[in-house]
Amino acid sequence: MDDSKLFELRIITPERVFYEGQVTMVEFNTTEGEMGIYKGHIPTTVIIDPGVLTITEPEQLKNAALLSGFAQILPDEVTILAEIVEWPSEIDLERAEDAKERAEERIKEHAPETDMVRAEAALLRSIARISVLK
To answer: ∠ at Cα 114 (112, 116), nearest 5°?
Structure first.
């Protein structure tokens, strides 16, 4: 692997350093759409939307469910400050599917007391968790 294409990726949560290493690409969802980042990207800060995080290391791909946070992108490093990010081994599929059903039901009912923003966010989080396991 050509080291000149590598950049530093750090993913930090309030509880732990989730990931730290040299990568060739990282992909995730933002409020502006999907984003793929290579070394040399223009500096920017983005807000994360729930989805699958794909980390491309020189020898392998790693996927995780990235559910919320923001990212600082610099030409030689990307730092993601995540509220919630989970490796597939940390996700309970049955629990995620139950959460998806509950969120879909709340959205479908659309009762006056239903907080639609929270219901839609819960749906997106559960879909991200399920997607990373498939």
So the answer is: 115
Mean pLDDT of the residues in the chain: 92
Q: Which residue has the tokens 């807000």?
A: 47
Cβ pair 48, 29 in contact under 8 A = yes
Q: Which amino acid is at 44?
A: T
What is the C-alpha separation between 36 and 41, in angstroms, rounded? 10
Q: What is the DSSP string of 17-72?
A: EEEEEEESEEEEEETTEEEEE-TTPPPEEEEE-SEEEEEE-SS-EEEEEEEEEEEE
Give me 90's structure tokens.
């940390």
pLDDT tens figures, 37-90: 999 999 999 999 999 999 999 999 999 999 999 999 999 999 999 999 999 999
Contact status, residue 22 vs residue 56, Cβ threshold 8 Å:
no
In 3D space, the residue among 50, 55, 132, 48 whose CA is nearest the CA of residue 92 turns out to be 132
Contacts of 66 (CB under 8 A, 6+ apart): 28, 29, 48, 50, 51, 52, 53, 80, 82, 84, 85, 128
